[in-house]
Amino acid sequence: MRKIILAGIGIVLIVASILGAKTIIDNKHKPKPVKEKVVKTVITDTVLNSDVKIVVPANGSLTAKQRLEIYAEVQGIFKTGNKLFKPGQEYRAGEPLIRIDASEYYASVQSAKSELYNSIAAIMPDLRLDFPDVFQKWQNYLSSFDLSKTTPKLPEMTSDKENYFITGRGIVTSYYSVKNLEQRLAKYTISAPFTGILTEALVTEGSLIRSGQKLGEFINPSIYEMEVAISKTYASLLKVGESVVLNDLDNTETYTGKISRINGSIDATTQTITAYIEVKDSALKEGMYLEAKLDAKTETNAYEMDRNLLQDGNQVFVVKNNVLELINVTPVYFSDAKVVIKGIPNNTVVLKKSVPGAYSGMRVKYAKSLDTAE
């Protein structure tokens, strides 16, 4: 009897185990939860077409508008002057930059001037007898003749006889020979043509200077020019005298210049035209790199937006009933970061900030501010 009871209990336990296992297996097949679709938050702007000023950026380095490359036309020893011939040295207009020793050449000039004086003095008795009416003016010329000064111009000849007489004695030839020597003598001193500063010095005092040798560079530091290349599209829009805003590379300083010249030809390789911007400021230095912003033209009934919002095929995303749609537009000008476009109706809601993975038909919602955008 006891065995029968134990066997029954065992059978009951086995059946209960099978039913429990079946229940557990059936409960594992629960339906997967439906994932809620995420609606992206976007930053938008309402289009109001207006006049958009197109500013063309250009850059370049400054060069002095007045520049003098100093070359020697004569040979000699560089004499020490009142100022050292060194970069950074300032000179006033007319002040000597370089003096070359001309003592030997000066002696030959004086000798030629003395010969001219003697030639004129030798004909004075003949002039007194044969040309008494012109004797006095030649006498006055001799009286004003000073060997230490520049040779004065010969008296004007009033008759053919006087001209033949003076020319026949070789006086005119001697005069122009002396003037030629004096012109060359003046080249032993190189003076500053304008007030400026020495930027390069290739010789030092006491060195031997040879004819044709470059001695240095001299500039006027008060006025500079910047050469910029502009697309030929805007060639007809640039005008001489227009103001231009200039910035340094750090955008910390702003200067105002004006277009001083525009090249008359277009570069065949780059299809650009060269413009020259004149700028004056005591803080500027030659070689500084600046960026210019040229007012090219004003585009009417246009809208400006970030360049990365323009899609392939000249399309932009608009928001209609919280759904993104693509519309065709006409871009009229591209800058580094912006694009000016036409063809968007007023009051159209467009994206102000790009949305990763955006597509036509995508549902979105508006953000109250940039900080709330996902």
Structure write-up:
By secondary structure, the chain is of the alpha+beta class. It has four domains: 42-54 and 300-372, conserved putative lor/sdh protein from methanococcus maripaludis s2 fold; 56-64 and 222-296, Efflux pump adaptor protein, beta barrel domain (Elongation Factor Tu (Ef-tu), domain 3, Beta Barrel), CATH 2.40.30; 67-101 and 188-219, OB fold (Dihydrolipoamide Acetyltransferase, E2P); 104-186, no CATH class. The chain contains five helices and 22 strands. The protein has helices at residues 2-27, 103-130, 132-144, 160-168, 171-186, and strands at residues 40-42, 44-46, 50-64, 67-71, 76-79, 90-91, 96-100, 189-191, 196-201, 208-209, 214-219, 224-231, 243-248, 254-266, 272-279, 289-306, 315-320, 323-328, 330-334, 338-342, 349-351, 364-366. The strands form six sheets. It has a six-stranded antiparallel β-barrel with strand order 3-12-15-14-13-16. A four-stranded antiparallel beta sheet has the order 4-11-9-6, with no helix packed on it. Strands 8-7-5-10 form a four-stranded antiparallel beta sheet, with no helix packed on it. Helix 2 (103-130) runs antiparallel to helix 3 (132-144) and helix 2 (103-130) runs antiparallel to helix 5. The radius of gyration is 46 Å and the shape is elongated. InterPro entries: MdtA-like_BSH. Residues 69-215 form the Multidrug resistance protein MdtA-like barrel-sandwich hybrid domain. One of its GO terms (molecular function) is efflux transmembrane transporter activity.
